[in-house]
Structures are given as structure tokens and as C-alpha cells.
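ping. complex inputs:
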Amino acid sequence: MRTKIVAGNWKMNKTLAEAQTLTTELMTLVEAEVTNAAAIVLCVPFPYLPTLQQQLGTNARMKLGAQNCSEHEWGAYTGEVSVPMLSAMHVPYVIIGHSERRQYFGETNALMAKKVDAALKAGLTPIFCCGEPLDVREKGEHETLVREQVEQSLFHLPADAIAKVVIAYEPVWAIGTGKTATARQAQDMHAVIRRLLASRYGQNVADGIPVLYGGSVKADNAKELFSCEDVDGGLVGGASLKAREFTEIIKAIG
Ligand code: PGA
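pong. complex structure:
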């Protein structure tokens, strides 16, 4: 059985006070209403990590994640945050290769490979994002592109290392647009990713790697998406900023 994961990606939103309020609301709702065993991850802005870590305390249900990291460990890289810094704060997850990082910050598959290495070396779980822009899907080249992304950023890893990675398939045309992939489109791509992993690492390893769907996941479409055989949860942007909505999405895991 693969771990089910619902991760919220807060992106560059909320003041610290608002972030604390949202966390309190979520802790209360999750405690009262969530009966499934899904891992819940809050990927919050860097400066809020220590405060929210303290707020979550020993809460076993919710873990923190960063939204990015440097590929370097230490040194003269002004403005960057390294994985050893995150691991010293006991942050267990880090998103790597979000399409907004690819699009606005020019991050490449090769750079993401280095970030994945850095995260694994420091004992963090990378949530590695892949997914195609609209024009690529319209040309029917989405499977080829996603294959390339996964191969170029992850396939240098040995089996015991890739087994510690979480993959998130996020079609760029569905991110923040309100246009969700249909359950069929999501399942088809997740199955492609799983087959690709199996071809390189064997079925056993492939079957153990959680593949999340991201892109306009909402309370009213989560159940259908999460019911797909190869969809192991979600990476949720906008809807993770509202406690009630995010809780309903977590509950949709079943
Ligand atoms: P969205 O974002 O849920 O707002 O579409 C998802 C993401 O960017 O991870």
C-alpha cells in the first residue's frame, strides 16, 4: 500500500498572523473530522517554518514542507535557503521543480536533479513536480515531455533513493486556472509515470512511490481524482488556503 498524501502549497500567500490562524483552524478541523491515515503536509513560506513548527508541536498528523531549496549546502548564495538549514529545523518535505519555478525562475531538469540529491542527502522527502504546459498537451506531446522531466531529474538515482521520492503530476494548464484534468486524464498520466518507473526500477519500487495530482484540486473534484488507481493524493494550491475546503479535500482520500 502506498502512502496517501495531501499536501498544501501555500505559495507566496498570507502574513505570519494569517498563517498561524489557518494552521490553528486546520488542526482543529483535522482532529475533529479526518479519520483516514493520509499524511498531511503544509508547504509554507520559508520565514514561517519555525513558528508553525512550534505551533504544530507533536501533532502527528500534520507535517511541514518548504516550497523550494538551493542545490548547494552552504556558502555565498545570497537569498537562498539550503536543505541542511531545513533539516536542522526538522522540516521533513520540500517541493522541487514546481512549474512556477520552471516558468518564472528558469529552473531546468538538470538543476532539479541536483536539488533532489541535496534533499535526499539531508534526509528530506522531495515532492518532485512534473507536468506539461497547454501547448504541449494540444500537440499530443504531454507524455513525452513528462517522461523527459522524470528521467532527467530522477533517473540518476539508485532504487533505494528514488523509493524515498514523492512525485506530483501537475499539468501547467490546470494550475490556478480552475480547469482540472479529468479523472481519466490524471489516471492516464499517472499510469504512464508508474510504467516508466517500473521499466527502470522494477514493479515493486514503482508500486511504492506515491504519485500525487495537482492542478485546481477542490473539495468538489477531489473524491473523483483520488479514486483513480494511480492517484495517491494531491498537491493543492489555492484550495489549501481555506481551512474548511482543505479539510474536505483531505477527507476525500476516503
Ligand atoms: P492550484 O495549484 O491548486 O491552485 O491549481 C496547485 C499547485 O500549484 O501546486
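Residues 5-251 form a domain with the TIM Barrel fold (CATH 3.20.20.70).
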